[in-house]
Amino acid sequence: MTDPEFAASPSDERARTLAQFPLSRVTEVFHDEMLGVLPPIHIRGAAGFFVSEAVAEDIHAQFVHRDGRFYGGYVALRDPETWITSARIAAYDVDNPNAVELAWYPDGAGEAAA
Fold first, then answer.
1. At the top level of its lineage, which domain of life is listed (predicted)?
2. Which one in 39, 78, 83, 101 has a CA-CA gap of 20 to 30 Å to 22?
3. Distance (Å, whole) CA 64 – CA 103
């Protein structure tokens, strides 16, 4: 039996999953592979595309091409506040001017691009 004091709430699990792949710069190859792996989800008004297979519950990977760079991260499809937007990308770029491009998911077998 699980101790209720140590049981994670659904919102804790959601936050942990979203944190596994926060907004990051990704390689063009990574972006393009995700575009071609499953039919992408395009939502009017949303930047880029979402991978149609959920990571968990309503959490999907979102990928965006903006100003010659590529970005990705986990977002909650039913919560637009978590989506990658131009404003979030601009803030990310200011905070991370020398960000390393990820060649694959951070919790996967991939390494940062050289």
1. Bacteria
2. 39
3. 15
CA gap 37, 91 in Å, rounded = 29
Structure token digits, residue 12: 């804790």
User: Phi then psi for 48, rounded to 5 degrees?
Assistant: 65, -140
Distance separating alpha carbons of residues 100 and 27, to the nearest angstrom: 9
Q: What is the CA radius of gyration of the chain?
A: 15
Short-list 20, 76, 64, 66, CA closest to 40: 64
**Residue 50 near residue 34, CB atoms below 8 Å:** no
Q: How far apart are CA 64 and CA 106, in angstroms?
A: 17
Taking the CB of residue 18, how many other CB atoms lie within 10 A of it? 18
